[in-house]
Design brief:
Elements lengths: L9 H11 L2 H8 L1 E2 L15 E3 H6 L7 H9 L4 H14 L2 H17 L4 H9 L5 H13 L9 H10 L6 H11 L9 H9 L4 H31 L1 H13 L8 H13 L4 H13 L5 H10 L1 H4 L3 H11 L5 H17 L2 H15 L4 H17 L1 H5 L2 H5 L10 H17 L1 H20 L3 H18 L5 H7 L7 H5 L1 H13 L1 H17 L20 H5 L14 H7 L7 H4 L11 H15 L9 H4 L18 H25 L5 H26 L46 H4 L23 E6 L5 E7 L3 H19 L28 H10 L1 H18 L13 H22 L10 H15 L9 H13 L8 H15 L5 H13 L16 H17 L4 H18 L17 H17 L9 H18 L3 H22 L4 H28 L2 H4 L2 H21 L16 H10 L1
Antiparallel strand pairs: 1-2, 3-4
Length: 1206
Amino acid sequence: ALEKHPSYPSQFISGLESHIKDRSQFKNCLLPCTPARTEGSRTLVHSYCESLIKLLLGIKILQDLVKKLMQMLSVSPVPIQHDIITSLPEILEDSQQNEVARELSCLLKQGRRLTVPILDALSRLDLDAELLAEVRQCAMTIVPSVKLEDLPVVVKFILHNVKAADAVEVISDLRKSLDLSSCVLPLQMLGSQRKLKSQAQASSSSMSQITTSQNCVKVLFDVIKLAVRFQKDVSEAWIKAIENSTSVSDHKVLDLIVLLLIHSTNSKNRKQTEKVLRSKIRLGCMPEQLVQNAFQNHSMVIKDFFPSILSLAQTFLHSAHPAVVSFGSCMYKQAFAAFDSYCQQEVVCALVTHICSGNETELDISLDVLTDLVILHTSLLMRYATFVKTILDSMQKLNPCQIRKLFYILSTLAFSQRQEGSYIQDDMHMVIRKWLSSSVPNHKQMGIIGSVTMMGSVALKSLLPYQRKNYPSEPCNVLSLQLSTLLDLVGFCCEQTPEILALYYDELANLIEKQKGNLDLHLSVFSCSSFLFPVKSLYNLDEDETQGAIAINLLPLVSQSEPGRVTDEMSNPRKRVVSPICLSPCFRLLRLYTGEQNNGNLEEIDALLGCPLYLTDLEVEGKLDSLSKQEREFLCSLLFYALNWFREVVNAFCQQQDAEMKGKVLTRLQNITELQNVLGKCLAATPGYVPPPATFDSEAPEGVPSINAGGPVRKKYGKEIFAAERETGNPLAQLQSYRPYFRELDLEVFSVLHCGLLTRSVLDTEMHTEASEVVQLGPAELCFLLDDMCWKLEHVLTPGSTRRVPFLKEKGNKDIGFSHLCQRSPKEVAVCVVKLLKPLCNHMENMHNYFQVIIPNQGVVDESRLDIQEYQLMSSCYRQLLQTFCLLFAWNGFSQHENSNLLRSALQVLADRLKPGETEFLPLEELISESFQYLLNFQQSIPSFQCAFILTQLLMAISEKPVTGWKREKMGNVSVGLDRNPREPEGTQHKNEPGNFRLHATGSANVYLEHTDNILKAIEEISSVGIPELINCAKDGCSSTYPTLSRQTFPVFFRVMMAQLESSVKSIPAGKPSDSSEKLLKWNIAVRNFHILINLVKYGRLFVEAFLKHAMPLLDHSFKKHRDDVQSLLKTLQLSTRQLHHMCGHSKIHQDLGLTNHVPLLKKSLEQFVYRVKAMLAFNHCQEAFWVGILKNRDLQVSTAVLHGH
């Protein structure tokens, strides 16, 4: 009707313009209109109608009004602008959409108040790809500054309009623009607002702001979650964007939350997400602070991903990488602190499951997590104490260190809150009484450990205010009185068994050492009674002896403890005689108790440092055969007790600053090395002897230790150190299997390495100063300390196996001799060694100077004035110093971000030896370079092949932080040139250690071939240069180009070259017609090398299989272009396959089982080779050139003669 009007459209438009000039009328035109209803009217289906303007804008002829509306946007109020923009998608024709979209994108940049309607309108327009990219980029520019409540809309628009081709780029830009730190109220402001309790309105306002912020972030991640779920490209692009970020500082909380979101939402990407997360953790891009910020500031968002968090944490605890394990434990702790009670219960149940899983690593980490939780969130964890308490049913699965941790957790829960913890106290008392009353020694050990840990919790000074508060009517320590019955039971058990008493002493000593300064030692538990410190009876001191003239009467004490011997003292009920087993444990407790009471001052007991020991005649050379077996065993026991006493004395006084006491400590170290030499001779003459126990918190080792005089001793109670660690002729090597029977040296003992020349007094028989002498740390003492340090570092810094251990098998054997060490974290041990690097460098430089003098002329040892024993000892020290450096720098904990400063400190010590005072501000890469060069300087003085191999390993450990081109090239050169070590003098060669020598030769050859640029060329050079040099040299000589290649190591080199050859040809990709020449040349070199090395049936088969799989496709395409080269290649290989065929015949004729096992598979491969060549010729239409003959079965000698005849 409107179109038929004669004045349409001019009069209509002018009338409309005049109508809407009135503001109220224009507003009414924009409002939706509702038709009026009459009583008789029919019910309308739609009671709501569009506004007049929308209805009129739907008329095609009136579309010129669009321009007018766009002009009106600049002058209209915000609500009207909102309505106009929202209406545009329904008004515009297709031809108008692009133009309006550009104007809207410009408007989007100008202001932030219309962000939501503009993006809503743009998302409903059909735009071309180029314009859509422009609009999306425009939206991207406003992400950093947009209002928080509008941010989800902007992100939704960007993600909704992303295309597969540019998804990674778009997501990368979005990831950089999104900053969640601006989405939360800073914690400092939040803390200050919480303090304003009186200002209720301000507090309410701030909490409302926080809630709004959290809700907006929640909506934002809901938007991302929808995009990840329904847009495959977005999910993969986001993972790729995070993966492509290399800088540690570029990673933020958003990355962690998005990875958790993808892992939780998209099951197809879970493995990829987990892989990226692991990689980022290893590289230090996901530090614990980032995890803490994510959980604390965005717990509402992350809580939705709790199943994924739990799953990832459980998986990460299985990892062999310490950074990944640490990340998993951090996730557990943060989830417990940030989430609700349901999640907290699930976390505790998961940790209990880990503890009962049978995996040693999981068990230790889970107990550490529970320990942290009980310290930080005692009241929260108290709710779930019932779950933690169930671990008591599986106590036999735990080793002593783990039992201590568990009882610390339970004791803290039991005694921190009286009413809630009373039932835990009852259960702990019941379990401990049951164990102490048991006749099984292992159960009694567990009871002692548990009871002492409980006593420690009661004696904590931090509990005293709680005890006074809860027991106001009783001033004494009621909790300690409650333990009096338990203490009596402990005393009864200790009197029955000396080993249990010794364990009780050790556990009390460990408690005092661990809780240094936090225990109330005035409690009855620590009363200095005769039960705890029976000094006179234990040390067998006479009553009338003064402190200045005491002596440890060890010989009578050991004699009284011999089986079947009854003396007057033992029959006297008033005089208590204690087993010598308790001698060292009691002294350890005494010195720690005294040090705790006197702030580390040991003057009260310093007489025990220099007092003599009453022993027997130790001149045993030539006398052992005349002694009976019982007398030899008695002598061995006496020496073990004396050595363990000296070890504890050194532990006690090693940190005293008085020069006289330091000198006495060095003297005791000399006594230890001298007694060890005597003990080694006695043990060699006393087969089957079992020493008295020295560690009491685990079951006795199985089997009888023995002296291994002919070679290295495999470490039975843990992982095996490098085989070359133990040399023949070294007294320490002969005693390695007896390590569980020696008292453990503390890490503080290694502070003795700082000592130089010291003066000490020499006393006469009247204990008066007779003279003074200068003492210093000699090679024997240095070797003793370094040997122990290497064992400790290898035990704690080398990652253990993560395989599951059945519970029915013995637990804890691997920790025998490392009880104190296991109570420290690997980082604490690494920090201790880094502090010792300066004296270690001094000692290594001294070794370098010594061997520089001994080996002056091109590696020729001057034997005319050489002390062979001193040479061996110095060589052992050199090797152990290198081993110490290698174990430290190979520690994988340095890859963790929180240990980067520690690594820098260690490298700075080495670099400072070359550039004193110039290394403080050097970048890490330069520190690595200087450290590498410093260590490389020692190659000129390397005295043995074993030292050369360890130095190679050390340089590799340094160069891998991180690997760069120059380091790879240097390592390749070092592995060749480093082993140009001198010929060792007569009597020092390791002829009895072929296993160790072959092991190091294998490592050296592998290092060289792995770090060379061209493996095939390197193998060819060794085969064509090194082996002929070896053939032409003397019997005990070696190749001049490759010094490690000798007749002794030739089989090792051969095996390594074959393995590397087979591995390298597999890396040659399958052939294509376009790139056949270069690959054909590589295969020619490989086959030529194979023909030279063809003597190993196993690797021969592997090479033939690799040739069939990788080379034959190349020959199919190359035959027509390079016929002569292909024929030459096949003829050379045919000679090798013929030789392999003769090997098969040789194994059959001589019935060699080792070879016969490989024959069937080898013959199958040889047959496949024949038919595959036939197929290649048929493919190239040359099948008439193929001819098959029959080879006769011959042995190697006959076949060789026949081949030479041809």
